[in-house]
Amino acid sequence: MIKVVAKGKLKPGVKVEEYLVHARELVSETRKEEGCITYALHQDINDPSIITMLEEWVDEEALNQHNKTEHVKRIVPGLRYLRESTEINIYREVE
Description:
Elements: E1 2-10, H1 16-30, E2 36-43, E3 50-57, H2 60-66, H3 70-82, E4 83-92
Antiparallel strand pairs: 1-3, 1-4, 2-3
Helix pairs in contact: 1-3
């Protein structure tokens, strides 16, 4: 199983709800993908402009296929434009 933590900080002046409209569409479409275990948005309690996506995938191939989908190619560039920073970490469980 692969886990992804994708944390983004919105640019000053960007309304959180504007970002979430697009991010929710991404979540909705991604949850339909084969190999997606969980895909959920989270908002920082102390700083609402920090939005984190927590993801679980069956394997790296499923994650790679996700990154090639039409909805990722269409939605993610717009989300990137609204963020001032992004940190993406991909994890594999250590046994």
